[in-house]
Amino acid sequence: MSFGSAVELNVTMALSWLPLIGDYTRNTTAPFKASLVSVSGYFLGSVAMFLIGLLTVLKTGLSDFTAAVAQTNLGLIALLIIVFFDGDHDVYGRVFGGY
After folding, report:
1. Spatial distance between the Cα atoms of 9 and 53, rounded to a whole number of angstroms
2. What is the pTM of this model?
């Protein structure tokens, strides 16, 4: 993946969660505080996800996370990790986000 593609992916991933923050906080009595908590949670989750990917690439030399997990000889556990943590699994956003 080129540097430009990686930057685009990171920015798009971060911005894709912004509409959900509005959904999460629309019925609160303290919208600023609720928004700050939501943004902080998404930020920490994104940093953790990118850090896991970075450390995996640095340790294994593979740029594909699923290939790295598959090479760990974890078998079914690796398959479950790939299935449940890769791809489109944003049910709340699809149901309540209006898209």
Report:
1. 13
2. 0.61
